[in-house]
Amino acid sequence: GAQGFLGGGGSKPPSLRVQLDLGLVAEEELLGVLSGEMRHLAERKVHVHRLLQPLLEQRNCAFDDKDPAHVEQLADLWRSIGGQAPVPPMTPGGVKAAGRDWTSLGFQRGDCPGSDFRAMGMLGLRVLGYYAKNYTGMAKSLVEAYCERNMGYPFAAAGINVVQMLTQMVLQKAPGSHGGGVIGGGGGPPAMVGSPLFMLMTRLEGNDADHAFEECFCACMSLLEQLWVRHGASYMMFNSILACLKECVVLWIQDEFSDPTGSLESLRNFDVTRGRLPPDLNIPH
User: For residue 120, what are the domain limits?
Assistant: First the structure.
């Protein structure tokens, strides 16, 4: 059995100690297991933070159409989705080749796609590129659906909004959390160690663990499409659908804390009927 009691006193907050009646050997074995698990968790936090910090810092790097690396990343996005069509010019006044321009991929300006990255910088392009490369079929189908719908959501612009939503969630501390400083000290993004989404990312395994943010984004794009179709949404409802998507992610986080799976499959297969639109914009079914 275990007996809990409060210790400490004076001006210091009381500490909770547990007295175990397991026998010396069993108690040492249990403490060894707990110590190992805590050490593993700390190592996972450091590992995930080291992956996320440079990724999220890219949101502070503006797209530069004079930077060959930036231009090539954007061209790769086009080639992944646009197929054999020539890559359109990326600057106003560029010589337009016959065929589609950047609006066909859901950018707001056909001659200046870089302007869409103002909010999320190169992070937006990096994550869209990951999606287009690793989920090419799905990305192409979303672009085709946008082109066919009269009031669909623009693929690229919508994706950048989802990147912004996830960035805010992964940097947002839970109420009452004391995950103050960035692990290891130093600058970079605000502390993410108190974020429920960050905590779940530390529990992932395999490819989900190595590309946690990007894979969360890919899953969210699928949920966004499901919500759009389910609610028969129009372009003017995009913000409401995005809010509903966020609620789905919050519910998934709650599910994972209650019954951990260590995988993003539960997010990929999330039941979007659980998400609700803002009350004033609910659509009767």
Answer: 24-281
